[in-house]
Write a structure and sequence with these properties.
Oligomer: single chain
Number of domains: 1
CATH class: Mainly Beta
CATH superfamily: Nucleic acid-binding proteins
CATH architecture: Beta Barrel
């Protein structure tokens, strides 16, 4: 399953050599979502693996990026207890502020990111709006 998300690159970590044959590099995106006129912020830690670890190098923290990724999950059992882990494996990172049609000559135009995702300044939204309720707790009934 391939998904895309646009957000602000918040943190880039160093590449970790996990084993002789496996390396990964994690990074964090700040994601803003507008619900009923309010902006709510979430943070997603994603990872690049193997030869993809370097693709994040050309982006600066604070930059708006579009990330293509897959959801990967593993199940393991230890001491009779079953555990699960989910990874967001990025495989492409590109600038989300690129002008339409400027995508290395592919001829295909990118859609602009939603306005609430274009907050490139660190203080571009009210900090009191960082409260992140679940969508089920928002009362959007008209009466």
């Amino acid at each position: 399953m391939s998904l895309e998300v646009t957000g602000k690159l918040l943190v880039k970590y160093e590449t970790q050599q996990v084993s002789e044959k496996f390396k990964k590099r994690e990074f964090v995106l700040e994601l803003a979502e507008e619900i009923n006129g309010n902006i709510y912020t979430n943070f997603a830690k994603m990872q690049l693996v193997q030869n993809k670890c370097e693709i994040i190098d050309r982006f600066k923290e604070g930059e708006l990026v579009k990330v293509s990724f897959n959801i990967k999950g593993n199940r393991w059992e230890r001491d009779g207890k079953v555990n699960y882990i989910t990874n967001l494996d990025a495989w492409r990172v590109e600038s989300a502020t690129a002008t339409p049609g400027n995508n290395n000559g592919g001829g295909q135009q990118q859609a602009a990111a939603p306005a609430y995702n274009n907050n490139s300044g660190a203080n571009s939204y009210n900090a009191t709006q960082n409260f992140n309720p679940s969508p089920e707790t928002i009362d959007d009934l008209p009466f």
